[in-house]
Specification:
By secondary structure, the protein is mostly beta strands. Helices cover 0% and strands 54% of the residues. The chain contains no helices and eleven strands.
């Protein structure tokens, strides 16, 4: 599976962005899809949101109520709508496939930079 993110950029605090993750190579309809962010200079990556293959979702507390993950299986695309952005949301955002069996993140996109100015 190849994943390509888009939609990042520079936005003021309180603004919104919508990230897209276009998948190719196989259908994501039966995949768990996640958005993960990494702050430059820090090793730990944070799982922000997961779209489970059954349609349910998971959100980290840090983004609950502000971010919404969705998918369009017909377009083989996953989205992350980000509202009420804060400077601490500044990071590289990547989408990833979470393996159904192992729970490991097996395929990653290259990431898209989101910068939130105060």
């Amino acid at each position: 599976v190849q994943l390509v993110e888009s939609g990042g950029g520079l936005v003021q605090a309180g603004g919104s962005l919508r990230l897209s993750c276009a998948a190719s190579g196989r259908s994501i309809s039966n995949e768990h899809m996640a958005w993960i962010r990494q702050v430059p200079g820090k090793e730990r990556e944070s799982v922000l949101a997961i779209s489970w293959s059954d349609g349910s979702t998971y959100y980290a507390n840090s983004v609950k109520g502000r971010f919404t993950i969705s998918r369009d299986n017909a377009r083989n695309t996953v989205y992350l709508q980000m509202n009420s952005l804060k400077p601490e949301d500044t990071a590289v955002y990547s989408c990833a496939v979470r393996d159904v069996q192992s729970g490991e993140y097996t395929y990653w996109g290259q990431g898209t930079q989101v910068t939130v100015s105060s």
